Amino acid sequence: MGNPLLAFWSRRVEREEQERRARRARLLAAAASSSKASETIFLVLRRMRAPLIVLITIFSISVLGLTLIPGVDGEGRPWRMGFFDAIYVMSYTATTIGFGEIPYEFTYNQRMWVTISIYLTVIGWAYAIGSLLALLQDRSFRQALALQRFSRKVGRLAEPFVLIAGYGRAGELLGHSMDKLGRRVVVLDRDPDRIDGLDLESYHGDVPGLAADARDPGHLGVAGLNHPCCEAVVALTDDDEANLAVVMAAVLLRPDLPVIARATTRTMVERMRAFGSPTVVNPFDVFGDHVRLALQSPASYQLLTWLESGPGAPLPQRGSPPRSGRWVVCGYGRLGRELTSDLRAQGIDVTVIDPSPHDDVDDVVVAGGFEPGVLEGVRLEDAVGFVAGTDNDVTNLSLVAAARRTNPGLFIAARQNRPSSAPLFAAMELEALLVPTEVIAHDVYAQLSTPLLYRFLQDMPARGDAWAEALVDRLSDVCGDRLQALWKVRLNIHEAPAVGGWLASGEARLGDLLRNPENREERLHTVPLLVLRGQDATLAPESEFELAPGDELLFAGWPAARRALQTTLVVDGVLDYLVTGRRQASSWLWRRLSGPRPPADAPAGTSRG
Amino acid sequence: MNLEKVVFGFFVLLAATLNFGFFIGDMRDPEVHNRYELFAAVIVNLIALVLKFGDRTQIGAVHLATSLVAALQLIAAALVYGYATYVSSAGLTEQFMAAIVSLSGGALLANVVSVVLLVVETVSFHRG
User: Fold this and answer.
1) Which H helix or E strand runs over A308?
2) CB-CB: which of B46, B53, B85 is closest to A56?
3) What is the pTM of this model?
4) By the CB < 8 Å criterion, does B125 face chain A?
5) Which end of chain B is more exposed for a tag (fewer CB within 10 A), N or C?
6) Alpha-carbon distance A202 to A44, whole Å?
7) ipTM of the complex
8) Confidence class of residue A587 from pLDDT cuts 50, 70 and 90?
């Protein structure tokens, strides 16, 4: 503290950090302004130059002619029209209002000139109005308008929002789930049809969308990358390169934001990880992990799918996939590769069927899989599992049907590529189904909506099958066979003002917190899933677990339990009853009247921490 | 040679010269200020104004501003002219004429700035 050198050093570091931040803000502003270059007003002005000049010229020639041509007044004396009269006459003539011949009747000379002027001015007006209408229809003009409207909407956002780059199927699913949570999203996609479709979708909140290439950092800037309310960036385009570009832009320009990106190859995952620590979701990897988990520990897989499906989901059946035996994988693409290596890592024999030969894998049969005799050729009768993993839905469905006919007892997994094939795959009643876009949407949703649950799901498989089985039993005892609410509590001054002193006492046991405030003998219908202290997570803590201030807790249980817990955390004195069994008067007067409590009985302080 | 630059320079200069032509002469004498010249000055200034639309550079913005000032002043002068001729019972008096000419003098100043800008732009343009 007293070391001047240290103080100097820390101040210097601080200043450097500030400078770096300012520099990043400048970079982003420059990138954003480059994409705003086509502001509408300048576009209109530039486009309307020629029509306006034509109009002015025609008008001035007509007016000048009228003032120069000699006419006569009411009594037949020679008379020349002044500029004011001429402008007046030409104004109503040119706009086809036509008041007549004012102030005196025209001579034939004047009429001839007016006839010529009428045609000239009508052409001028038609040209000007025509160009203006053409401009309104113009694509670049509409884009400029849309960009302006979009950036105004994003600029006005005053609540946290998630920036989704790439609004495909996965983006749509994610957007809708975030919207249901009441969170705002901003959408960027290259396809104008997808963005136009936003208006027709049933969102609760207004979703600003821009049809632009997400690879351009300027577009990301307009979409709110430098907005203080931006809470996360999600890159979900179907192009890995574009996702990498989004990750780069977000990590370099806003290092403080969490970034989640989709990647479908391992190389791309590595390239993305080179930039800081973005979270990368590889749907095939996730599916491979799920299949591996399902094989390794069915109870963990059951718990995972139950918790991931969200509130209201019925307890899924605990599958009993074959643990030993040979598998047949059709299609050695991205999914086939992941799955084959995952299965082989389990010590399972895998036979691969693929139309093109591969060197990096053994036991390959080069065939499409649907030719007669191929499935018999790989001895499907004595295999235990079958994966239809090509990128063609029709092929996958026919493969599944053929495999099932050959060997009805197979464990069958398939990949669904297009959302429109969903009913067909559902009718097939498969043991495992991969829908890449849904896997991505679920995974990103879990990370953004309830980070604690995501942490739980990450750490849970390591605990083993028996642990998971016990937890599933505990959960179904408490909740029944449908998952109830999932919620988190942070033990800080804002969310738990009434228990600060108790937490600081060092004797704060989780079990005491989970008693019913009405009757302390009753336990609340809830299961604590996770306690997060700093970076350390404790899974399914026991009731003896000691809590500390600042802990984050994730609970699953009845909504009523959530309300009861809320009461304990917020209302003074309730916790006192839960811990000691003594009701403490809640009003000041009654507290005075009941007198000071004997010190031995009193738990350390229940006052506001 | 760039035809666009020729047209642009032509109109900017013509606006200034016509304006100057109308302005020159005894301030109160209607005889030495031709109304056709004022009309031509208004029209040419309007065209010069439109020609300057849509340029987003700094010098383009100043160009546009000077033209706006000149056009507004000249239109004001024309309005005063019309008022004096048609509406006022006193007719085109010396006071009116002085007002008209001084308004056009203001416009002339703006037009001169415009010409100076044009010259500066040309001089600061390096070939290659």
Assistant:
1) helix A298-309
2) B46
3) 0.68
4) no
5) C
6) 34
7) 0.84
8) low
